[in-house]
Request: fold
Amino acid sequence: MPNVPAAASALDVLEYLSRHAEPVPAASIARDLPLPRSSVYHLLKVLCSRGYVTHYVEDRRFGLGSAAYELGSAYQRQAPLARVARGPVRRLVDQSGRNAHFATLDGRDVIYLLEERAPSQPTLVTDVGVRLPAHLTASGVAMLAALPGPQVRALYPDRDSFTQRHGTGPRSLTELRSLLSRTRTDGFAREDGTVTPELSSVAVAVLDRAERPLAAVAVTFRSVDGQPEHVADLVGRAKAAAGDIARRLSPTPR
Amino acid sequence: MPNVPAAASALDVLEYLSRHAEPVPAASIARDLPLPRSSVYHLLKVLCSRGYVTHYVEDRRFGLGSAAYELGSAYQRQAPLARVARGPVRRLVDQSGRNAHFATLDGRDVIYLLEERAPSQPTLVTDVGVRLPAHLTASGVAMLAALPGPQVRALYPDRDSFTQRHGTGPRSLTELRSLLSRTRTDGFAREDGTVTPELSSVAVAVLDRAERPLAAVAVTFRSVDGQPEHVADLVGRAKAAAGDIARRLSPTPR
DNA sequence: CACAATTGTCTCGGATCCGAGACGATCCAC
DNA sequence: GTGGATCGTCTCGGATCCGAGACAATTGTG
Reply:
């Protein structure tokens, strides 16, 4: 592949700054990337002039600038998650003959970004835009299982955090942790009747390159159809869809 | 200044994509920037491999990637607003002899990021991290005045949106709009006793390059000291501080 | 179905850039 | 106060890159 080294170096500098909680001196950037000192200053000049980097003159340090934030906001406005997920989720529905949906985590809620219906399958409550408590849904549990423990604790500081639905679901952090541990062991999350009585879902998380959960893919079926080999088949297909989505969102660097 | 054209072009491509609500074909990028076709493909290759751009193969289009979002998140983690504002706000306090603070808008709240105390001035409630309803504070009103009308309406959909404090402040969207209009005319926002009885504040917004409010700077004084010429002096100093902060956050492109 | 348009990849040589190193200014340690 | 270390800018020549244009594959149109 053709190399565009100056562009790649500019990204290196931005990513270096983004890995640091505080602004850093130019000498550290040059040393750690490593890049020639004069090249680093040239790059910083351009990045500063475009607002991607802020020069803290008094501290003689450099940090990310507001243009970096603007890029992040623009990314969110393009709704890329649902856009990228549409094809794989459609194929999952076609292949499995079941309803599927795609959701992301927002605090203690899951928010549904996409739902694809299979013929003759029951209507779901998981319409686009709907929010449900994460710990009560397969998608939510799949994503929570991929979060670091301290972050889960921060989300669920006390027993009041655990809303109920149909009298089911974890009621404490201990119960939730146990559920998340089992989810990690199984490689997927499952709920039976917690969201909708007589319906079950299996879900897997879509992870970014840092193994953080971006979203989750779930397949829903009637609970009476929940034979182990059937469930295993659906989990496998959901995993394939999740992997496909992950690859499109965060390509492996070459 | 030394030019690093490939780095600048890479930023051009990212900004072009961020200006579009939908992914775009490579031909549009080449035509509109304008850049040579082969150069655009080279840049897209690098940006895709690093996750800044996503190639929507089926649509033959390109959109921003999750790495753009990660940069934006990293920017927020560095808390650059308070970092950049500290010096100018400290100088404002030194020059005016009054307390000053710096806040940003979060939904219908202002959240205080920085407070600098002057000797022998009264303690304020606006400690770092404190949230107050925006429409009741000078800083909040200054930032709301810089928002487009539809965005203000979205923030305040009904009368229940208008919390009260000490029985003062706007009670309806009509009253709020009137206040914001006066604020735009005056060039600053003022509150007298709404946050703390017997204390007044004047505030001005810190605007980014798109004239959107990033934050606000406010000076607080005893209401009995509120003679017009004194207030005008404080407003002028607050404006200078706001301008200084804005220049550091979003340098004018060359 | 045939042709035109577009997309994406690839080559290679002239033009341009990158980076070593010099320099002046500023900061820091003793 | 002095000398060393660091920062930020600048020059310029050899090495590298950029981009015109060819090509094959795919898509769109009549």
Notes: The first helix of chain B runs from residue 5 to 18. Chain B touches chain A through 62 residues (CB under 8 Å). Chain B has a mean pLDDT of 86.
